[in-house]
Structure formats: structure tokens, C-alpha cells
Amino acid sequence: MASAATFSTAAEEKSAPATTASATTGSTGAVDIGRSVNSGAEGTGGGTIVVAGGTGTGTGSGNSSGSSGSGASSGVPISSTFCNTTITDVVDASLKVVPDAYRAMAGQLSKEAGIAYRYGPPAAACGASGGVPLYGPRPNNLTLNYSFMSADAQNLWQLGKQVANPGLYSSNQANVAFVADTPARVGITDFQTTNHMLGTFAQLPQLSWTHYGSGTDSVSVLAYRKAGIVSGSPIAIARCSGRRAGYCASGLAVFQNGVIGTLGNNTATNQATLKLPANKVPTGIAMTNDSEFALVTVWDTTALKGQVAVVALAGLCNDCSPYNRNANGSYSAWYNWWREWSGVYPGLPNVGNIAFMKILGYVDLVASDGSAMNAPTEITTATGLDPFNTVAEARITAALTSNLAKDDDQAGIGFMGFTHPLTVQANRQAFLNGNLSKKYAKGGVAVVLSKSEKKVAFLDLKPLFSYVNSVYFGGDIGAFNTRMASLGQADNQWPYTFANQPRQAPTVVKMISLSDKPTAVKTTVWGPNQRAWIATQDGTLRVYSLGGYAPGGIAATPAARDIAELPQFAIKVGRNPTSLGISRGEPEDPDIYSPEQQYADQNKQVLVNSRGDRKITWVRFGANSSSIVRTLQDPRMQDPITIEDADNFANWAFVLTVADYEGKAVHNFRYGPVLFIDDIACPRPTGCPVEPTNGVKIEYAGKMDLQGKPFQLTGTNVP
Questions:
Q1: What is the pLDDT of residues 514-553, one digit of tens each?
Q2: CA–CA distance, 653 with 675 (Å, rounded to integer)
Q3: Which of 398, 421, 442, 622 is the most buried (most CB within 10 A)?
Q4: How far, in Å, CA of 563 to CA of 548, rounded?
Q5: How many other CB atoms are there within 10 angstroms of residue 310's CB atom?
Q6: Residues with Cβ < 8 Å from 643, sequence gap 6 or more?
Q7: Do the beta carbons of residue 545 and residue 481 sit within 8 Å?
């Protein structure tokens, strides 16, 4: 933890006037388009994926004028063959971007051509078998006579027996992004992956009854479209990886027209949007552990270079305005919503109901040795902070084992914000170097892939966290109040942009080249053995240590040399691995059934979706080796492209959701028992077990059809 002496003072930070400067440290060019509230699909040819050609459309600059980045080339786009498919890329034989191809692809990233570029050919092109059909799906039963459920928002369940006692309600909600069949669809659907309620368990993916029959279009995105904010299809979606109800309530989506918007759920409905400049085309998005920041990879179609846009986020009470605390719907002022802060604090941990966003600036993807990444395709991030560290008290076990009859406020385990307002200097001092000093991240890392350039960049987020933390917890209360009162989108309004305070900008600390195209990446979230998992098109999963770059709540001084490949963990997983999933629980681990230990180590395994072989594998890591401990194949998955493991907070179910691109559906598979923590149904210790097939302890839980081809999904536990 840094001492008070290292924090900047008001005198060191005299507000500078807004200026126009370079893309990296200058004015962001962002447009704040409110707290309110076209799709298209273009096919790719049978055995050919053509990325090059044309002058580009959509948000790209659409012509070949403007400056060329150091990685630009006037050469010919390179072609390669994979799974009987010829792929024409956006780079030439020297892996430098070809301007026309680059700009053309920038306008297609949300369409079928863009999905083919990012995720390769469909599974059918690789000729893989789908395996033997697993048991299921189980018969559906309709939830009846539940007073909170409207007639047009039904819930279907498959296990247990409906009783009058609601028990400990627990559900997982998700968003799925897809290439829509028609422009009438917005390209994102909100849905329920699992649900424990009334002694029943729903393992069928379905529209959530909590949205009261709102339909297949995402509630938030539909509002953005009606308001004229979103005019393109989604390119990517993301959310943080919390482990406690409500901590990752809002996801984020980036759209073809450059809009970044929140994706809420039934208990988190704040809507906030920003828009990137026209020449900054988003390609991927990630959120830090506790929704402090969003990181968006972009292609700069003017300068022909890759960047990461850094977006500060702030959570707030539901339907509360960050700019007017006295105009909050039915409430006259900010109120205690899951113990959220009673203030707008972009860059601090929050409960996840995002109400404010601001682009702080852009980081050029250039390492100190001059190596550059100009076509980033995917990003992931981690701070190493366990979200449980942000609770106000430590009496977690007692609350969980008393059937959670009391709410967080009564149990004394709620989020730290409401009970420790930063308007009190004693609280700021406690966060600075007192009993609250380990409850926020001291740094972080982002890992960025470039599929075309076969490169991986590692970004150090410590400058960002160190600076923001210094403002919130260092210096005197008067300077703090002045900064907070200046909230806004200008460079010299809080939170300050890189143009105003350039020392906070993250830096590229390492750039590595690979022998094959990287296709998927994840980082461990918290706990021991902080690593990055990187998959390549040939079917290899590689593992890299992160050193001290994800330190959690304790300050560290990492070194670039500590980021290194751990070859003893490399393993073959299957052709064209397009998605990695954080493991949210392992049924064979006895600790999972202890409320206080169920998240003891999320880094012991990772899930890998190998699109080319139509299979999902669970890769487990030992002391010096890795092994595949479970494999999922089912012919009903025509073209698995991305996966998400459901949370097991409080109740347990072990359900994996798979997005099926060519199958136009999401599928659920259950690989462990269903248990209710209050034993209202499926009582412990055995619960309701999986019905195995040929010794494989996985059952098919059903599917939800979509009006388009899904390519990304993200989910969370929602109270």
C-alpha cells in the first residue's frame, strides 16, 4: 500500500483547459449520449472467407486516405487454408495491415464476414462428429400460482416439486449477442440460464419470467434503438467476473456504430451509453473484477493502428441519475441499494448497476521495444481482487449457513459503500492505510490478442488504479469534494482524462509473438497462481504467468520478466478453440459444497470450447502439469462457438451454456447435482444427480432458439 506521501495533491493537479491532442493522450472525442434509452447479416462464401477488398463501410473511415501506422503495408492480403476453408486476411505476408482490407473489415465486424474473420470457419468445415446424444432434455413443468409471475411471462422447470415456500431464490441471467436474421431484431437477447425457486430447478435456457413478457429483444438495447442511439449490430459483450450476488449485475455491449451501452437485468436497470469517435472501431471489450473500468480494443481506421480505450465506470442505486441526485424516479435522493455508494465514484469497486461511463483515453498498443499491435481482436482483464474483499464485514459464513433469511444489511455482510461514505474523512483515511485498505484493487493486467498478427500484448493497469485511488483516498477532504463536484465528460472534469493527467495511462509492458493464430484468451480472476490462458487455432492451450500484475488488494511492484510462458501446462484441446470459460465450480471438489469455501480456488481449471471439433473440455492444472478431466460432445450442438459456466452462489447446479452459431440457439448442459442450500428440494448430500450416458456424467438440459446466429454470451448470478 502506498503511503500518503506518494499521493498527488491539489497543487500538483491544477485543472488544465480541454485541448485537442493526439489520439493516445488527448481529448477522447467521446460523445455522452445519455441514460435513456441495424442489424444486418451478410453471408460468407461456402469454402472461402474473404476479408480483403473494397473501400469499407460502416464505422470505418471508408477510404485509403489519412496517415498510415507503422504497421501498415501497401502489399497484398495473405491467404491461408484451415479446415478446408481459404481465409483471406487483413495483413500481408509480413503481418502488416493492408489498409483497404483493414478498413473494409472494420465495417463488417458485427456481420457474418466479421464473425468468420474473428472465429474462423464453422464446425461443419472441419468435418467433426458431434458424438453420442446425451440423456435429456427432461420434461418441462409450468410454474403455477406464483403471485409475482404474470401470465405472459412463464417459467418452465425440470427438477424438484413446486411448493408454497419460495425458499432461497437464486437465478443466473445472461445476455447473448447474435448476428440477427432480420433488421427487426436488435442482436442481443436477455435470458435466464438457471433458476432455483419454490422447490423447483429450471435448467432450460429461456426468457426470464422476471422481465414480464418483454420478448426476445434486450430491454436495454431496444430502448437505445428506439431513442436512435444504436444504429448497428453488436460486436462484443462483456461483464465482470464476480462471485457474489449483484456484483456483476450489468454487462456492457459495443456496437458497430461505436456505441458502448449497459445491459442490465431485472434487478439492475440503469442505462448508460457513450459513443466512440467514428474512426475508432471496437473489436472487443472486457471489464475489471469489480466493474471499475471497461477496456475496449479498437481499430483506428485513420491511423491504421490498434488501441485500447479505457472507460471509467460508476455504479449507482437503481434508476438514479449521476448528475442529479434529487431526480431519481420515485425516490427523492440516492438511497441504500445493496449498500452501493451514495456518490458517483468512477473507477472504484461498485455493486455493478452502471449509471455513469466516461472514456479516459486511448492506449497505443506499442511496447517499449517498438513492437506494435495494429489489429487487436480480443481482450481480457483481471485485478486479482476477490469481490468478497469489498464486503463491509467478515461474517459471511454465519449468514450463508443460516439459510440467508436476513438480508445483507441485517447480516452485516453488505458491500462497503453505503456504510463508509467518502464524504467522511475518517473513512477515506481507513481506505488509505487503515482497516479498509485492502478492499480495492491496487493494479491489474489486460491481455490483448491479435489473431491476424499472431501477437499478444500485456498491459499494466497499475498506473490507472494508483492514480484513481490517490484521488479518492489521498489528500484533504476539500480537494476531494471539489473534484467530485466537477463530474462530467470534459478533460478537466472528474474523472480526468489522459489529456489532463497522462500519468494514469496504462502501459504495454510486454509484446510476444506466437507461431500460430491466437483465438481465445482468459485470465484467472483472483487467488493464487495468477495466469493467462491463451488458445491458438491449431488446438493448443498455452499458459502464461502474470507475475505481480494482478495483485488484488495489496500493492505490488511487478516486472515484465515475470510474464512468461509455463510450457509444462501446455496441452492440446481441439481444433480452433474459440472460447475459454472461467470455471464457476467443480462437482468433484468437496469444498464446493461448503458455503465459505465454494470459491476457494477458481484457477485450478478452465473450460475450452473447440469449435473445430465440436467439443468442450475441462482442463485441470496440477503442480506441474495439466490434463483434460471432462469432455462434452452432443450432436445437438451443430457449431459451438462460445461458452459460459453458470454461477453456483448459495445454491448449486453446475450448468454450462453453449452458444451454437449455425444452430441459431443456446444450449444448456448440466454436469453436477442440483442442491438447494435450504434443502427445500434435492436435499444434500446427494441432491438431484445427473443422469449419465455411457458413463459420461453430463445431461442435456435443453435449448432456446434465437432469431440469428449467436457468437458471444455472458452471464451472472442475480438475486
A1: 999 999 999 988 888 899 999 999 999 999 999 999 999 9
A2: 7
A3: 442
A4: 9
A5: 26
A6: 579, 581, 607, 609, 616, 656, 657, 658, 659, 713
A7: no
